[in-house]
Amino acid sequence: MNTWDLKKVEHDLEKAFKNNSEVQLLDILKKNSFLFYHLYSRKKGIQPNFAELSFADEMRCDFAWLNDNSDGPEWVLIEIEKPKMRLFNKNGDPSAELNHAIEQVKSWDRYFKDNHGEKKRIFGAVSRFRFILVAGTREDWQQEQAIKWRAYHNEENKIEIRSCDIFVDSLKFAQNHFGDLWSFEENPKSFKHSELKGYWGKYEYMDLWRKVL
Question: Which stretches in the chain have pLDDT values below 70?
Answer without folding.
Answer: none
